[in-house]
Amino acid sequence: MKTIRSCSLFRAALLLAATAILGVSAALAQSGGVTLGNSIIEPAFDDMTGTPVFIHETQKSPFPVKSNPRAAAPIYAVEYPVQSSIPAAEMDCQPTNCDHDNVIPFPDMNYGLASDDACRVFNGGNPCSQLKGVEILLGLAPTGGDFNVAWHAELVFFTAQGFRDGAIDTKITTLSQLNSALTKGDAYLLDTPITFECSPAPKQTYDRGVPEVIPYP
User: Fold this and answer.
1) Using alpha carbons only, what angle is made at residue 94 by residues 89 and 95, rounded to the nearest 5 degrees?
2) Which pLDDT tens digit goes with each residue over 114-161?
3) Is the pTM of this model over 0.85?
4) Exposed site from 80, 167, 198, 210, fewest CB < 10 Å?
5) How many Å apart are CA 185 and CA 183, to the nearest integer?
C-alpha cells in the first residue's frame, strides 16, 4: 500500500506568521466554496496539523497546468460516501456547494451504484456513485508540509474494509491519519492527471465571497 511522505520546505518557526496570514480559526472549517471576482476560495485542512485553512484559485489560470512533477505538491481529496455518519455540513465540500467532486464519475460498489437518475444526469448520463462530501488536505510550508503553488490532485477512496470497520465515520484531516488509513487497508489512493494552481488565502477573503450553489439534480 502506498504511503505518503511529507517534506519540509521552511522552518516550523514560521507557524505563527502563517496563522496570522491564513486567519486560522480553532473552529471547524466552513463547508463549501465561494466566488470572489474571478477567484474561487475553498476550505481545506493543513495536513500537518489538521487546522482549517483556506485556498484560493484564480479562474483565469490554465486548468490543468503543465508542471514538472518535481515542482508540484500533492493535494488530497478524501471522498466520503453517503453512508458516513459525519454531518455533511462539517465537510469541506458537498455535491451542492463546490464545483468539483460532486459524484464519483464511475460506479464504485463500496459506495453503491446510484439508485436514481440524479447522479447519472450530473455525470453526463454515465453510471456513477454518490458522495456525501469531501475533505481537502494539503501541506503548508510554515508547518513543515509539502508545499508548492502547483498542486497534483490525488483522490482518496475508502475500501470495503473501511466501510466495515467504521473508518468512513472518522474525519481524516492530517497526513498521519491518511497514512494510517492507507497502511491499515481502510483506504486507497487514486492518482489523477490533474495539476492546478492555488495558494493559501486568509479567512477574511473567504468570508467576503458569494457561496457557490451547484444545481445538483
Assistant:
1) 145
2) 766 778 888 888 889 999 999 999 999 999 999 888 899 999 999 999
3) no
4) 210
5) 5
C-alpha torsion sign, points 73, 187, 157, 108: positive
How far is it, in rounded angstroms, from Cα 181 to Cα 158? 9
How wide is the angle at C-alpha 98 spanned by C-alphas 5 and 143, nearest 5°? 30
- CA nearest 91: which of 42, 26, 21? 42
What are the pLDDT digits (tens) for 93-116? 999 999 899 999 899 999 988 766
For residue 169, what are the CA distances in angstroms to 62, 79, 164?
A: 36, 12, 10
156: its cell numbers: 482518496
**Cα-based torsion angle of the residue sequence 43, 48, 50, 56 in order, rounded to the nearest 10 degrees:** -10
Tell me which amino acid residue 58 is.
T
